[in-house]
Amino acid sequence: MRWLRAFREVVRSGLTIEETRLEPLLALRTAAGVAIVIGPALWLVSPAYAASAALGAYSAGGATFQRTWRPRKVIALGAGAGLALSTFVGYLAAGHLVTFLPLLAVWAFAAGMAWALGSTAGIVAATTVGSMLVTITLPTSVGRALEHAGVIALGGVAQAVLILLFPIRRWGAHRDALADALAAVADYARRLRQDPAAPFDPVPLMTARDAAAVTPSQARTRPPVLHGPRGLAERILPVLAALADPDVGAPAEGPERDRARELLDTAADVLDAAARSIRRGTPVEVPPGSADALRVDEEHEVLEGPARQAAERLVELLAEALEIAGSGGARDRAPTPSGPASAHFRVRPTMFRLLPVVVRAVRRELRRDSPVFRHAVRLAAVATLGYLIASRLPVGHGYWAPIASVMVMRPDFHRTYARAVGRFAGTLVGVALATAMVRALGPDAHVFGALAVVSVALSYTLNRTGYAYSQCFTAAYVVFLLGMGGQAWEQTVPERVVLTLLGGALAMLAYVVFPAWETPRLPGRLADWLAADGRYAAAVLRSHAEPTREHLADMRRALLASREARAAWQKAYDQAKQEPVRPRGLTSREAEQAQDALEELDRAAMLMESHVPQADSRSTPEAERLAEALEAATAQAAVDVREHRNPDWGRVEQALHSWDGAAAGERNPVLRRGAELLNRALDDLTTSVSCTPLERDVGSAREEQRVRAAVAEGDGARPAHRGG
């Protein structure tokens, strides 16, 4: 993608309205937290203290809107404490640039490294940098700095108390994650009706698994309905694939295929009903006729062999899913059974035990090629440079430039540029509207305080509809807050617009000077996915060769590792398609073909998993040799892909040939089908990545020409990539 087209996509993304469910009650509660601290501070103390309190309550409230599985009151308290600490420490060093700039650089670098813990930690840490830049201008002594820090922390406490007293959709995020996973499996069942080889995106299941990890205190109140359905969805998934496959399950045409389609459609309806029940906390409402469709009649059932086994297993699992989802009507009152922690839930460390986790996560990212490390370096450089430049300009409130930079910067190119566009557009509109109201109403601190609270409520309400639209009311909130403090709008509003533009430009320029492009990393991400898929398929084969509990546990671990590698590839691939960088190592077409091949490899392993014997059941020892050959070959092929060499599957082909000769007629049809798909997937992968450097350069040039021609024709759309 060229820079001009990349900019068009950035502007479109930054100004796009995202269709998402609004949460006005949550916004109202959080805005009430801001009002609770602004009112008394304005009435009893001074506008300066009210501004500090508003900053703490607003930032702590905004942190609770981030997607996190921890209790939101804990997030609010943590954000308030971080804001208070940054304010006080910043004031101690704020007397001279020679002391403040190094502190700002170190603090911004640490905030950037917080992305190693996830987006929530990174966003909350960025707000502490903004707090340091703004509130150090308010106190006049160390004692006053402590008072302002305490008032800011009080804003976080106010938000936490409101969350405790007025819970809204407790466990709502966890319910949504689990419901989304079930709905994704339901969608997969429907797509299998039309396309038996349809791919499945495991991200919803990965998200639900992440949400299932809770702290010991959360485990005591977690609703029972959040326990079992995710595991059922995991078990239903390969059964659906096996039923739909024309070689393992129902034939491609005829009564058996019609029966398979009926079962798939009914399974989708049942899973959707379970998802709605879990999401809303209401009893399950199964569509009429589902029970009849799921009845496997011993005498009249048309399905036979492995297809019949898959159908029977599917019916059992769906009945279990409905039984568990039925507890969704209990709302959130029923506690989790007591007992040893590890026996009932995946453990998430408490806030007080996070230090070793933080240290390990940050240490993994302390390398030059890490996107998180490069983001931290950019953040530190831009924050200090922006503050230094703004301090030399003939304007007041120079901190708006570095704040704009810090709040829009993200570890990847597209989001950084899109947020810069959105912030400037939102700031321009919000400042214009708020300025008109300030001029019309005249100076009145109490009126401006009320308008600030209304702006906060609207900003929170539109928080997930697009950054530009929430930023519009955030900008209005700041104008009203400054008006409440007695600042003349002529001295603040034009300056803020100019400084916001300066901050956004610095953030964009920083990514050009010190980028973290994903495009060159695509071969490595693909190699990681290939190696992980090889280990997963080999683990499935070993479970067939010797179905012990240890091998079944290994298979589960390999599956999770494969999904993580696939998610890392997909994230990198999506980012690479938005970058103005020429393809290196893999063109988009090659990447798409390689992705299709590895999805086929996933499907082969999943089909074989659907008929893995239970522990201590009859084994298939001939599968062990193929497992060893496959794992070794995919590990070597991963190295070859990284180094742009053609993979060699001779060892796998030899194992397959030997197995066919030794066990012809004995191998079960599921393993036979899985081996065929494995062989085909590996051949397709070789075709997609096997070309000389000259051929790859020619392919890249042709692809760029094709994209430019499409743009010239006026379609303006990105080339479609399946799964992208």
Automatic annotation (TrEMBL):
Gene Ontology cellular-component terms listed: plasma membrane
Stretches for region Disordered: 574-594
Any matching Pfam family: FUSC_2
Coiled coil stretches, renumbered: none
Compartments it resides in: Cell membrane
Keywords: Cell membrane, Membrane, Transmembrane, Transmembrane helix
UniProt keyword annotation of Cell membrane present: yes
Main localisation: membrane
Record's compositionally biased regions (Basic and acidic residues): 574-592
UniProt topology in membrane: Multi-pass membrane protein
Residues that span the membrane, as ranges: 21-42, 124-142, 148-168, 420-438, 468-485, 497-517
Domain Integral membrane bound transporter: 386-509
InterPro entries tied to this protein: Memb_transporter_dom (IPR049453)
PANTHER family according to UniProt: MULTIDRUG RESISTANCE PROTEIN MDTO, P-HYDROXYBENZOIC ACID EFFLUX PUMP SUBUNIT-RELATED
Protein family (similarity comment): Belongs to the YccS/YhfK family.
Name this protein carries in UniProt: Integral membrane bound transporter domain-containing protein
Organism: Streptomyces sviceus (strain ATCC 29083 / DSM 924 / JCM 4929 / NBRC 13980 / NCIMB 11184 / NRRL 5439 / UC 5370)
Source organism phylogeny: Bacteria, Bacillati, Actinomycetota, Actinomycetes, Kitasatosporales
